[in-house]
Amino acid sequence: MLPSEHLLVAPVLLPLATAALMLMLGEGNRRLKSALNVGSTTLGLLLAVALLLRVHAEGSAAFGIYLPGNWPVPFGIVLVADRLSALMAVLAGAVGLAALLYALARWQHAGVYFHVLLQLQLMGLYGAFLTADLFNLFVFFEVLLAASYGLLLHGGGIARVRAGLHYISINLVASLLFLIGVAVLYGVTGTLNMADIAAKIALIPERDLGLLHAGAAILAVAFLAKAALWPLNFWLTPAYGAASAPAAAVFAILTKVGVYALLRLWTLCFPADAVGASAGFGGDVLILGGLATLAFGAIGMLASQQLGRLAGYSVIASSGTLIAAIGFDAPALSSGALFYLASSTLAGCALFLLVELLERAREVDDGNDALPAFFDAQPPPGANLDDDEEVLIGRAIPAALVFLGVAFTLCAMVIAGLPPLSGFVGKLGMLIALLELGTVAAWTLFALLIASGLFAAMALMRVGVRHFWTTQDRPAPRLRVAETLPIALLLGGAVFMVVQAEAVFGYARATADALHEPQRYVDAVMRARTVPSPTGGMP
Amino acid sequence: MELVVSLAIGVMAGAGVWLVLRPRTFQVLIGLALLSYAVNLFIFSVGSLSVDAEPIVRAGVPADLSHYTDPLPQSLVLTAIVIGFATTAQYLVVLLALRGLSGGDHVDGEEEKP
Fold it and tell me: How many domains does chain A have?
């Protein structure tokens, strides 16, 4: 195996090693840990980008396969990087880096284990996107969820603990459903390898089909609860609203993990063009559920008074859009949805970061910069070391209000899908595909997409008016470089997606085409061979 | 034996679901624990129930599932137990934190208004 083959497993191992190292450094050494974390997260993002470029350069046979235990294929765990995995990994890395940079300004002081938790969160995300084994997917889900429980509580306070308790309960139950689904699928197909399951589904006898469908449906419920499908999404808004800004920013991609798992497994196991009773199983549920979720999110956005809740509902609306679009099982629609997924993840993350800055700008206090209470009350050990750093990265930037205004406008345009930004391109791609489909469900989604864009634009405009135009003798907000940089980077990513729209859309199209030809995935995984032992024996 | 195992799973899952829907945090905790026991037993049972069968291949006995029990569900159960244990412990920490912050044991942090 070439050394470059190990590129596939590196995004998982790097955050794990970094987290372990940081745990050994103890509770102090804050500056060293910050530097380590920035270095590791940046490197992780670069690795994900390298993976994406490599997968994309390989043309249609774009599968990187890695056997971590060197067991032959259907038996051992397999890691697979295809275009979808690589895209999601890049998004995870970008969101993680943005949240980290933002947290450097002040949130990292709110608790000693922020850096460790963030690294473990990234490890779970990268792992979940790269694995091709169902039970391994469960393990990585648990890793990322366990880290997200910690991140949600970061900063403390009763609001977070209360929201955290609900969040953990819901997710524990969803994890148990995940396990039941995996167990049933294993009982029916006798394998846990996703590609092998897909290959075996055609061979399942008639009498076992009910069991297979029940197992797949239970598994899907677990994913849909994480993807915030209505009516399984009432936990989302309080939890995301209560979380600290960097944690909420990372959570912007957590719902997309559920969407990813659904997209991966559903297109793999139940393609519409398959023969037999399993073809397109559950597609109607996805479409209906997605439409309901989209409507719920759009109405929720219009009804929210707090910006934090509005951001939560915008996440729900984008989840609904994606789930409904997946349900149609049409490559053209999926490619628009993938473009939309990338742009809405970046914009959602930026919006969660902006929420705190905007709320801070509204604070009409004595201008002491509205530091969170924990900072003044009890400086954590090691905080003194940060004094110099505070001067460095804590420098207020000029024209803060201008920055906030421009960033908020751009963010709102991406989320509402207004031209010329990336949200519009993604939505346009989906709308054109829906016109070609022409069914009742397609027209409903068409109408809802436009209506939800209008609702989002109205809700965000109202917030913008309240925050920027009704300023009466308020002190100008103080922003720091470390707080504005990640927002600028995320929105820069959205702008990049427009400037390079053709290339990005081509990538999305190739991803969707590969997803809708699951046989290519199955063949690629099954072809993987173990590496012979250097001593000549069997592995 | 199938009957005993399925009854055990059913009773634990039923009790677990009922407890998870209760308003006290401790009840929810026990409910989650019971549910995870039920799920663990369920995973165990999908690998075909058999008495006196080993998961490891012995010399002289043909290697098929009529002579052995399936080793994979056992390893899955082991992983699921460890993960369930850790996440339940995490839930317990948050439970205690909420108890300390709110002074009560209601899952919403405050008693329901009559």
Answer: 1
pTM of the model: 0.87
pLDDT at residue A372, rounded to an integer:
45
Which residues in chain B are closer than 8 Å to A166, comparing Cβ atoms?
Answer: 107
Alpha-carbon distances of A21 from A18, A116, A143, A296, rounded to whole Å: 5, 9, 17, 44
Please give the Cα distance from A397 to A394 (Å, whole number): 9
Asked if B79's CB is within 8 angstroms of A179's CB, the reply is: no
Looking at A417-439, list the stretches that DSSP marks H as alpha helix, in order from N- to C-terminal side.
Answer: 422-437
Dist. CA A144–CA A19, nearest whole Å? 13
Say which CATH number the domain at B31 has. 1.10.287
> With an 8 Å Cβ cutoff, are B109 and A158 in contact?
yes
Q: How far apart are CA A433 and CA A438, in angstroms?
A: 9
Cβ neighbours for A261, distance < 8 A, ≥ 6 positions apart? A128, A137, A223, A226
Residues of B in contact with A180 (CB under 8 A): 39, 42
pLDDT digits (tens, 9 = 90+) for A297-352: 999 998 888 888 888 999 999 999 999 998 888 888 889 899 999 999 999 899 99
Q: Measure B109 CA to nearest chain A CA, in Å.
A: 6
* Predicted pLDDT at A1: 39
Collapsing DSSP states into helix, strand and coil, what is residue A273? coil
A531 pLDDT above the threshold of 80: no
Residue range of the domain that includes A315: 282-364+395-518
Secondary structure of residue A271 in the 3-state scheme? coil
Q: Integer distance in angstroms from the first to the last C-alpha of chain A?
A: 14
Please compute the mean of the pLDDT values over residues A69-76 and round it to a whole number: 82
Q: Which of A165, A172, A179 sits opposite B98 (nearest CB)?
A: A165
**Is residue B24, in this structure, part of any structural domain at all?**
yes
The pLDDT tens digits of the residues spanning A204-235 come to 888 888 888 899 999 999 999 998 888 888 88
What ipTM does this complex have? 0.92
A174 at interface of B, judged by CB pairs closer than 8 A:
no
Shortest CA gap B46–chain A (Å): 5
B114 lies in some domain: no
User: Contacts of residue A212 in chain B, CB cutoff 8 Å?
Assistant: none
Range of the domain at B21: 2-49+68-102
Residues of B in contact with A186 (CB under 8 A): 46-47, 72-73, 76
pLDDT in tens, A99-117: 988 888 877 777 778 888 9
Under 8 Å between Cβ of B39 and A176:
yes
How many Cβ pairs within 8 Å bridge chains A and B?
83
> Are B94 and A153 a contacting pair at CB < 8 A?
yes
In a domain, A501, yes or no: yes
Q: Examine residue B33 and state whether it is found in any structural domain, yes or no.
A: yes
Contact B107 A182 (CB under 8 A): no
